[in-house]
UniProtKB/TrEMBL annotation:
One of the Pfam families matching this protein, by short name: OsmC
InterPro entries noted in UniProt: KH_dom-like_a/b, OsmC/Ohr_fam, OsmC/Ohrsf
Top-level lineage group: Bacteria
Name of the protein described by the UniProt record: OsmC family protein
Length: 140
């Protein structure tokens, strides 16, 4: 896996990242740090990556378990250290999984497997952050 990150110009703090799969993502800083708030902050991208990683896992595990999953949302609420390096110190993952006749034990298992075995991003973040998981099922 590889990517490249390029500063977009001398008049701000916007950076463009190109992934190994050929996708481009913009990142920017806050106005008080020289940015113009045109794109997510790099640390927000890390949090988004963890959310995407675990949501992908949960949906895939439920589908493989023949569950009729129709939707999956993950809300992440994080706190960071007050001093540099401002690593994540606490992250709460809240899943809202929707479908028809979803078995609670299947959803719990999917969340657990993602958290403990498959989601590399959240497992890596767990090295500095206390991570909690909650989930709910919405019948559709």
């Amino acid at each position: 896996m590889e990517c490249s990150v390029k500063w977009a110009g001398v008049d701000g703090m916007t950076f463009l990242a190109e992934t190994g799969s050929g996708h481009v993502v913009a990142m920017d800083g806050a106005p008080d740090g020289g940015g113009r708030n045109l794109a997510p902050r790099p640390m927000e991208m890390i949090l988004v990556g963890a959310g995407g990683c675990t949501a992908y896992d949960v949906v895939l595990i439920l589908k493989r378990g023949r569950q009729d999953v129709r939707g999956c949302e993950v809300h992440l609420d994080a706190e960071r250290a007050e001093t540099d390096p401002k690593v994540f110190t606490r992250i709460s993952f809240t899943y809202k999984v929707s479908g028809r006749g979803l078995k609670p034990e299947a959803v719990e298992r999917a969340v657990h497997l993602s958290a403990e075995k498959y989601c590399s991003a959240s497992i890596m973040l767990g090295k500095t952050a206390e991570i909690t998981h909650e989930w709910e099922i919405v019948e559709v």
